Structures are given as C-alpha cells and as structure tokens.
Amino acid sequence: MEVLVLGSGAGGGIPQWNCLCPNCVRARLEIKEKKEPFSLRRTQSSIAVRAVGEKWVLLNASIDLPTQLSREPELAPPGIEIRSSPFSAVVLTDAQIDHASGLLSLREGKDIELLCSESSWDLLSNSYPLIRILSSYLEIKKATFPFKIGSLLFNALNLGRSVPPYAQREPRPDDVIAVSIEEESGKKIVYCPALPEINPQLEEFIQESECVFIDGTFWSENELCLWNIKEKKASQMGHVPVGGENGSLNWLSSLKIPRKIYIHINNTNPMIDPDSAQAKAVALSGVEIAYDGMKLLL
To answer: Which contacts (CB < 8 Å, 24+ apart) does range 287-290 have?
Structure first.
C-alpha cells in the first residue's frame, strides 16, 4: 500500500493568513528566503492511499487540494484522455470545513464516489450543502462503510460527538470517525485526524495496524487560551492534546504499532518546530510528525 501525505496542518495551515504566532512568522520567513525543504510550512490535512498499481483514494479534501495536487507528479491525471481523475473515490472522516471544502475543487470531474458517515452526509447536504451544490456539476455516488474500493477495504469507527461549529443541531456519535484501510494481504493503516477521546474501542480498532495517523492538533489543553485566540480548551474542540499525563503521546508510546504519525497539527503547536523540546519528546517516544509530501510504502 502506498500512502502520500498531501497536507499535515490543521485548519488554516501554516502560515495561517491572519496569524502572527511564532510558527507562522518563521514559516513566512522560510518562504521569503526560499528555504527548501520547508520545515514548518504545512497545508491543511489530507492523505491519498492506493494499492500498488491501482488508482488513488483521497481521504479528506482540504481547500488546499489544487495546490497539493499540482506539486505531486504521481497525482497527475492518468491515461491518455484529455480529462481524467487520479482518484477512484473520496473518503471523509467528518464534515469540518477544512476536511470537506476541497470537494468543490473536484467539480470539473464526471463523478465522485463519496464515502462518509450518515452524519457527515446530512451536514454536507443541508447545513453546509456542498453535496447539493456539487450535484449540479457532476454525479455524486453515496457509499457507506464498510466499502471496498479496488482491492482496499475501508471501515469506520465512530469516535464521539464533536459537531462542526456551523451545525445547527445536537451532536451525533458518527460526527467524527476513524477510518481503517486494509489490503487483501491483511496489512492495515488507520487515519484519525480528529480524536475527541481515547477509549478501548479505538484501541481495538487500531490493533494489528502497520501505521496509524493520529490527531496532533494541540500540544496542551489550554494552548489557544494561552495565546488569547479562543477561550475553548482542546478537549472542548474535539481534540485530545499531545502532551500531558493524559495526552495522546503517552498513549501512543505504549502501543506496539510499527509507525505512529501525528497529523492535523495546528500552527500554535510547538512540536511543529523541529528544534523544540516538544518535537524531541515526540521523537524519543517513537512517534513521527507528518509533513507535506511524506510518502510511505507499507
């Protein structure tokens, strides 16, 4: 199985257009000085997966999708027709703006096989009606879990009630899901860019995985409060923080999974800086931090 990280940042990316936090300031400096590879700059999170020789499946579609596709030669339109898509399907883990808005960039295609929870389908049909709008441009084929795409089997686990801020209804259990992708050989990865809580069901779901991508949005529970950005804590926004006694890093370090990778990292998270104590603590725990363009062959 091939995995390509298209974007590794949380909503807004790094640098975020209106942010003067240290990470965003340094990312702008990297761009100005044309330093490559960029160590801090990140677009909004999304990955693509495929079995070797098959078409790609896109997991979450950020508003940065056109930029992400243009920089990856492997995602150029395949075949000899004048118009074609590198994707056989799109999978959504929730209906958050930073995970779904990129669907609009696919409107030039002929059709989309869209795999998501009933809650996300409902939100994207009514509260944030991307599906209704897109249906005027192309055919959208609804698919539900479990679902096989090519030789890959996609399954889902409800992670809890964490509804997008725009939703005008009570939260539902399948507002946020983790997605597993399994080859016929049994090799499996899990994609979980939002983690409202760590529970036994999730531990069972990721067992026997070759690789797990986990929510790395915030380092600490009060991260946005400390910067006077928001009064909400990380857990109130549906994210278990990385650091701390009950953080995800302690949990991940105890798991016997070959590769554990943080993704969906907010611009305020100090572990983005590779020289920070937080980044070194992550590395010492045997966990990786995703970056745009990261490639895995499992």
So the answer is: 287/249, 287/252, 287/253, 287/260, 287/261, 287/262, 288/259, 288/260, 288/261, 288/262, 289/8, 289/216, 289/261, 289/262, 289/265, 290/5, 290/8, 290/45, 290/213, 290/216, 290/261, 290/262, 290/263, 290/265
- Alpha-carbon distance of 29 to 12, in angstroms, equals 17
Calpha distance 240→234 (Å, rounded)? 6
pLDDT in tens, the chain (298 residues): 999 999 999 999 999 999 999 999 999 999 998 877 778 999 999 999 999 999 999 999 999 999 999 999 999 999 888 999 999 999 999 999 999 999 999 999 999 999 999 999 999 999 999 999 999 999 999 999 999 999 999 999 999 878 899 998 899 999 999 999 999 999 999 999 999 999 999 999 999 999 999 999 999 999 998 888 888 899 999 999 999 999 999 999 999 999 999 999 999 999 999 999 999 999 999 999 999 999 999 9
- Would you tell me how many other CB atoms lie within 10 Å of the CB of residue 179? 25
The maximal CA–CA distance of the chain, rounded, in angstroms, is 54
Beta-carbon contacts of residue 48 (< 8 Å; ≥ 6 apart): 3, 4, 6, 56, 57, 58, 59, 75, 86, 87
Please name every residue paired with 149 in a beta bridge, in sequence order, or none if there are none.
152
pTM exceeds 0.85: yes
Pair 208, 187: CB distance under 8 Å: no
